[in-house]
Amino acid sequence: MTKPAKGAPVLPLDTVLPGDCIEVMNRLPEESVDLIFADPPYNLQLRGDLHRPDNSRVDAVDDHWDQFDSFAAYDAFTRDWLKAARRILKPNGAIWVIGSYHNVFRLGAELQNQGFWILNDVVWRKSNPMPNFRGKRLTNAHETLIWASKSEGAKYTFNYEALKALNEGIQMRSDWVLPICTGHERLKDGRGDKAHPTQKPESLLHRVLVGTTNPGDVVLDPFFGTGTTGAVAKMLGRNYIGIERETTYRDLAARRLSRVRKLDAEALTVTASKRAAPRVPFGQLVERGLLRPGEVLTSPRGKTARVRADGTLVGEDVKGSIHQVGAAFEGAPSCNGWTYWHFRRDGKTVPIDRLRQQIRDEMADRPN
Amino acid sequence: MTKPAKGAPVLPLDTVLPGDCIEVMNRLPEESVDLIFADPPYNLQLRGDLHRPDNSRVDAVDDHWDQFDSFAAYDAFTRDWLKAARRILKPNGAIWVIGSYHNVFRLGAELQNQGFWILNDVVWRKSNPMPNFRGKRLTNAHETLIWASKSEGAKYTFNYEALKALNEGIQMRSDWVLPICTGHERLKDGRGDKAHPTQKPESLLHRVLVGTTNPGDVVLDPFFGTGTTGAVAKMLGRNYIGIERETTYRDLAARRLSRVRKLDAEALTVTASKRAAPRVPFGQLVERGLLRPGEVLTSPRGKTARVRADGTLVGEDVKGSIHQVGAAFEGAPSCNGWTYWHFRRDGKTVPIDRLRQQIRDEMADRPN
DNA sequence: AGCTCGAATGAATCGTCCC
DNA sequence: GGGGACGATTCATTCGAGC
């Protein structure tokens, strides 16, 4: 670890520092931090209210700290805090930033402009995202993290084997499926509402810190919020430094951190869960060209239906999913379309389930 | 479709145009294209001093098609081709770009700078990516697409129900699991090697075009390569315009396209949105005797209102349309009266929307 | 205690038409 | 173009009430 020169500022470990993150970082000794994890404001630019189909109102992120006047203002802010972060980062240190499409392109471009060297972009695929209530866009089901070293050629920390172990013996990929932060983990305010609008799940920080830091490293989070980075760092035996402007969040973080205990090595072992057979939408067979739009499927009793480009079927007087059309043909309340429908290949009649199995086999070879 | 003014350039449909995409786009009529799909060079071999601004023009790109002197040169190139693309895009048109972490942050930022309005970023999660052989980083298992309208508030095309059908009845998410282009689909050169280094899978384009264009739309691809965009567009009954500088790729694309057949109309028909269904005034239910004046309707929470002869409702202290009275009862800004109100028949509680569906079915049987 | 069912909720750039 | 009316639209998970 770099030792500060005589008279130089000292690195305050395992504390939450109040104030603006740029000013606070500028008072810290240069090249003293191993990892920076930053979850900056996203600049969401929300307009009106949004309601669910049941008319309940969506609790939006309308906090003052997420408001910027323009892209130029947001870029200036990004430039300044990244520059301050860069100064305190050790030469072989690394940085993680997280964002959504609202801000992540500006984050990534500025990282590159300042000479950071992007190692991976990582997609946090949310297993339970909020749906798109109006049906006007795709479900916004992921956020993006960028992992970068301080410069090209720097010797960053990467615990390849640890991440491989976390992933059941297979090399960790750049897409991580993790649930959003809910339930007991989600900090509440006095009235039982969420204490912070954008609290990140500890599982996400767990993977980041296990994969790219070592025990004893110093991890700094300039947008500390309610302290998820600190909580996981402490648990994993890393040192943390949090910076947070809002008193409310700082107090919550301090209380939270006081309750966290460092895990012993044995407790850090993760139990792997068996995953169920992945769901394969019928439409994927069409997209992948395993079945052509217009192709005729037959039922065991000789009924026929044609495949459409969106993965629905059209039979006589009926259209819908493979299950719906099958059920209608049989006059049954339900029907497993996968085993009901067949197609012809090389003179043989084959159930479409064979094609689903083919896709599942591909996924099993290279799971996650 | 916008008709070109007398003497204005004509839109060449279903062809592959030779030349530099910026020059070629600048010769096309403005506001004439419905969708642009762009897979620009990835700038994979970045080197050089990032602090030395390189003001060289796009033409300064050297012999290798994916090499640029610096981020500045890449940004200038991005700015120029996006500007040309923007000019030929219809006001309600949209653009897709695809990239990796090497270039996508610069693409996204420049899209925003030019006034494009990002609708989603989409992660193409590769089910069979190339592993990271040296174990120094995460497996780079995805690429990023950005979907943007020409401006905020523009009426872009989004076939919500078709994508939902492709995904077995659950709304499509922003992460798409699709295999990379291999096997028969991968075009080979004379020696049996891959003909193009970054050929995209047709499944990816299938989802893009089914979801965000309609049959007959004009789809332009300024970096056409071996013509995946054109092949899927032709198959799906969309018109394509490809631009490609390299003769080799153009020839391969032309041969490929000549073999593609357009699907028949039925296969192209896609599950439609309810928004397209004919409007049925509530009063028509009363006129037709499906509901009697004076009849009592109930809400899910037990509120009641009575039907009047003119198709309005009267509740306690409120009268007006089914929507207005529902909204007033719920204290909500708006309410869909069709799903909110129920009536009783044969001892069962039925939403009035059932009656509207009955009328719509009759209209479909005997269209007028 | 165990089960079922309903309510609540999450970083969201979430209408369209007609007058 | 502004304002008002119509009316389209949700997935996974957790927690608590009620039985």
Automatic annotation (TrEMBL), chains A, B:
Family per UniProt?
A: Belongs to the N(4)/N(6)-methyltransferase family.
Instruction: Quote the catalytic activity from the record.
Output: a 2'-deoxyadenosine in DNA + S-adenosyl-L-methionine = an N(6)-methyl-2'-deoxyadenosine in DNA + S-adenosyl-L-homocysteine + H(+)
| Pfam families per UniProt | N6_N4_Mtase (PF01555), RAMA (PF18755)
Name of this chain's protein: Methyltransferase
Q: Name one GO cellular component term.
A: cytoplasm
Q: Which residues form the DNA methylase N-4/N-6 domain?
A: 33-254
Q: Name one GO molecular function term.
A: site-specific DNA-methyltransferase (adenine-specific) activity
- Specify the superkingdom: Bacteria
Alphabetically ordered keywords of this record: DNA replication, DNA-binding, Methyltransferase, S-adenosyl-L-methionine, Transferase
The record, for InterPro entries, names: DNA_methylase_N4/N6, DNA_methylase_N6_adenine_CS, RAMA, RM_Methyltransferase, SAM-dependent_MTases_sf
Query: What is the protein's species of origin?
Result: Rhodovulum imhoffii
Q: Which GO terms describe its biological process?
A: DNA replication; methylation
